[in-house]
Amino acid sequence: xxxxxxxxxxxxxxxxxxxxxxxxxxxxxxxxxxxxxxxxxxxxxxxxxxxxxxxxxxxxxxxxxxxxxxxxxxxxxxxxxxxxxxxxxxxxxxxxxxxxxxxxxxxxxxxxxxxxxxxxxxxxxxxxxx
Length: 130
Known about the structure:
This protein has helices spanning 2-19, 55-67, 122-127; strands spanning 33-39, 46-52, 69-72, 81-88, 94-101, 105-108, 111-117. By secondary structure, the protein is an alpha+beta fold. The strands form 2 sheets. A 4-stranded antiparallel beta sheet has the order 2-1-4-5. A hairpin with a 5-residue loop joins strand 4 (81-88) and strand 5. It is globular. The relative contact order is 0.20.
């Protein structure tokens, strides 16, 4: 009986750890191209677009985003975007589109997600437009 209880508790612990998610964005690690769109945060107008195809640039952005701990937000106030990242695969199919508003949120899957741990490397993204 004690072994059965220990087994059940161990199973619950393992499933609990597997069930925990950091909210990372699945599939973007397969991107071979990222289209980065910059917006004017005061007007919302598009300022410019950069298309990244260098593996090092793509890896930096993907690793940075996947290092963040995210929490899905149910209700958000309207916000203005600062950047939009469109991740594409080798067949030029869109894997995911990530919206980056001026605050510490990321938008994907139809929801905004707050950054609960880590920091988005906005300086790197901004540097793409210099």
